User: What shape does this take?
Amino acid sequence: MGVDVVLKQVSRPGTSSKRRRLTQLDIVPDTDEVFARICVRSNLPMLKRVDPYGDLILIAAEMPQLLEEVETERKLTTDDQERALLAAVHHLGERCSTEPYTELHLEGD
Assistant: This one.
């Protein structure tokens, strides 16, 4: 029931949405379900939207809010594993906000 955080590059050769291709650039795997637990317990609006059983796709315009919420959760936790995972998610969020044609996919089981 983990939520993997995956940075993907979007390419659209031509104008058809059917030709949309995604290339995985980086991933923060949630093998121990740490990120899923953080999202479930969070009262912050964007993290609350994360579904451990579904997928959520975020674009660069949504990164400021995600980065702020991830940083808030990182400051609140005393668990080293959670802090490390949130730092890695924050890094992918920063990349998504600055690298063109990228999306951040939060992929539940």
Observations:
- The helical segments are 34-41, 45-49, 63-76, 80-98.
- DSSP finds four helices and four strands in the chain.
- The chain has a mean pLDDT of 94.
